[in-house]
Amino acid sequence: MREESSGLIIGISIGVVIGVLLAIAALFCVRYHRRRSQIGNSSSRRAATIPIRANGTDSCTILSDSTIGPDSPVKSGRNGMSLWLGGFRRSNLVSASGIPEYSYKDLQKATCNFTTLIGQGAFGPVYKAQMSTGETVAVKVLATDSKQGEKEFQTEVMLLGRLHHRNLVNLVGYCAEKGQHILVYVYMSKGSLASHLYSEKHEPLSWNLRVYIALDVARGLEYLHDGAVPPVIHRDIKSSNILLDHSMRARVADFGLSREEMVDKHAANIRGTFGYLDPEYISTRTFTKKSDVYSFGVLLFELIAGRNPLQGLMEHVELAAMSTEEKVCWEEITDSRLDGKYDVHELNEVAALAYKCVNRVPKKRPSMRDIVQVLIRILKTRHIKKHHKSLSGATMDEVSVDIEQGETKIPITVHRRDESMDSAADSIC
């Protein structure tokens, strides 16, 4: 009898344990399906509208975005799966990107209830914000009618969470609450390169500074192509997406259209900005690193000519290239605001490099690493030409900095602008 009762007790105990485990499993399944349905509902909701003041708007877009055509899916190469903002919990997004999350309330306070407007892009309005820590940042808010949408928001957070370089704009935080999608960047006090090339509010950029800006941008793209793992293709290089800090160091911004090279090389829709788009990409719908090189070539010609691609820049370039002389005289397309203050040989070298970048055959275009080396060599040649001048002959408005290539350091002279150039040495080392 004792053995029978013991067996009965053991059987009942095992049954209870199994029952409890089944109940727990069922509870987890119910909660999982509820969360899935809630996420699906939240992802279909559009962002609420933020009131924007029209007065005080700067015509210069501090952080701009451009897009052509409808949205396309964004995938992350980290785990080979699609990471959709609507279907990915914020806690997971933070852990995956490493970017801190700001509360909507804090950003609302920092932007004086979103009234400190400093720019407007396709993504949405951009505000200057003073955080409680005293840090000044730029806050970019996804507009309700944004052509780029939440997928580009997801791309910027995921990519910039792992991309860190002195020539890339740093993403310092994001916010995804109250139906809003907000990106928080390091504030770039000098605005966009486009504003300095075309706005009458700024004095003309000197030729010397234009070459340094070109080198900064090239180094940022070289990092994306050769330093990032996996490599990243920016897909929207243009003057309004190049931002300048207080020392006039250039940084590449706006990664909403960027893609990791190993993911989705073939695009269903053409995305980017007309005038900067690689013709090969337009015809094949396939983008590569050489697509960025083409856009960079257009940017170089923009620095030379001070002319927007939408103003017939490339037609202007082709006419100059059809010169009947043995050598192309690129001086005829030079920005009149330079007032002839440039070295003709140096300008022709930069223009020749730009012309190689916009070659119709992608394979014939140089890599970004090659471009960086050419620009460094041009700046070294500039130094050698001036090396015979004694230091005592240098004017008070000049500062000596270094360009480093391998183990060799050669001082280069950079002319100061009215802006502070305290960090000039860092910008080219």
From TrEMBL:
Phylogenetic classification of the source organism: Eukaryota, Viridiplantae, Streptophyta, Embryophyta, Tracheophyta
Name it. Calcium/calmodulin-regulated receptor-like kinase 1
UniProt-listed Gene3D superfamilies:
Phosphorylase Kinase, domain 1, Transferase(Phosphotransferase) domain 1
- Superkingdom classification of source: Eukaryota
Which GO molecular-function terms appear in the entry?
Answer: ATP binding; protein serine/threonine kinase activity
Q: List the SUPFAM superfamilies hit by this protein, alphabetically.
A: Protein kinase-like (PK-like)
Does the record bear Zinc in its keywords? no
Q: Does the UniProt entry include the keyword Protein biosynthesis?
A: no
Where in the numbering of this chain does the Protein kinase domain appear?
112-391
